[in-house]
Design brief:
The protein contains eight helices and 18 strands. The protein is an alpha+beta fold. A four-stranded mixed β-sheet has the order 1-6-5-4. The protein has a three-stranded antiparallel β-sheet with strand order 7-8-9, with no helix packed on it. Strand 15 (251-259) and strand 16 form a beta hairpin.
Length: 295
């Protein structure tokens, strides 16, 4: 059967609830999931558009593809503002911050989610430049990764597919750099801001499950995972101080901006076997994921 999405339903699901949009085909099966505007645009490009592009709420977009002997027809109702809301200036500032999306200096588009009084990116950071356009060093050898005291990033196992799914792994020196990782109007959360998030979700003993995606990217049992918060925490693993990559599928680790000592920094971890959110101390040379929070 064909699923019709009214404008208000589409906007409510995508922008208010911050949940993935599911497109269903004539068999009623799950066909495609879009978790960000960038994915939506890629899907629209992949399935040919046979009617005028997004030019008003009474216009529709038909996307079709032959799958076996069936023609899958998708009907979406939307406005120009839905896709035009992602325009940015050179600093990566969204033209409409209330739209539920933010764009970085590279043009990566991130869906956002409101949790309590905070607004978070719903995806891990992928940016390769600081806010002013300066490139962040990468492709460091294990020895260079271990010894550097300046900002750098890595991609898990140097596999571009991991960048697409999990984002980049940054050392803390990149987090602390005055040129800024996050787009204008956003910043790397402090330890206190992570604590505020956990407390809103019931405290750290239960927050982990509410922050974890229910995706099968997590190894079983993915204890307690509900994604009740809409945070979509994924197990992107990390890069250890010695340069090796570990724990993809098992752990997700995120930096805070708060130092614990001259050597360590507070971070947060989600794990496949527990429903807790862990407050850890990470070596500054380590590579963790980054989520940005709105100022």
């Amino acid at each position: 059967m064909i699923k019709f999405f009214r404008l208000k339903d589409f906007q409510k699901a995508l922008f208010a609830l911050r949940q993935p949009i599911f497109f269903e085909g004539i068999e009623g099966e799950l066909f495609e999931r879009c978790q960000s505007i960038a994915e939506l645009e890629r899907m629209v490009e992949f399935y040919s558009i046979t009617s005028p592009a997004f030019i008003g709420h009474n216009h529709i977009i038909h996307m079709h593809r032959f799958l076996s002997s069936f023609v899958i027809v998708f009907v979406l109702i939307c406005q120009l503002a839905v896709l035009s809301s992602c325009k940015k200036d050179d600093s990566g500032t969204p033209s409409n911050p209330a739209s539920g999306f933010v764009t970085d200096i590279d043009g990566n588009v991130y869906q956002t989610v409101t949790i309590g009084t905070q607004v978070w990116m719903k995806e891990n950071l992928k940016v390769s430049k600081y806010r002013n356009g300066d490139p962040i060093p990468t492709n460091l050898t294990d020895d260079a990764w271990n010894s550097t005291t300046t900002g750098a990033y890595a991609i898990y196992n140097n596999d571009v597919a991991n960048n697409t799914t999990y984002g980049k792994l940054y050392n803390w020196y990149a987090v602390a750099d005055s040129r800024n990782l996050c787009p204008a109007g956003w910043h790397v959360p402090s330890d206190a801001e992570w604590t505020t998030l956990e407390n809103y979700l019931g405290d750290s003993s239960v927050a982990g499950g509410k922050l974890k995606s229910t995706s099968n990217l997590w190894n079983t049992p993915n204890t307690g995972a509900t994604n009740e918060s809409g945070f979509f925490g994924l197990p992107g693993g990390n890069r250890l101080v010695n340069g090796t990559y570990n724990f993809i599928g098992y752990y997700g680790d995120w930096w805070s901006s708060t130092e614990n000592s001259t050597t360590f920094v507070w971070s947060r971890g989600l794990y496949y076997y527990y429903g807790l959110s862990y407050r850890n101390s990470g070596y500054k040379q380590g590579g963790f994921s980054v989520r940005c929070i709105r100022d």
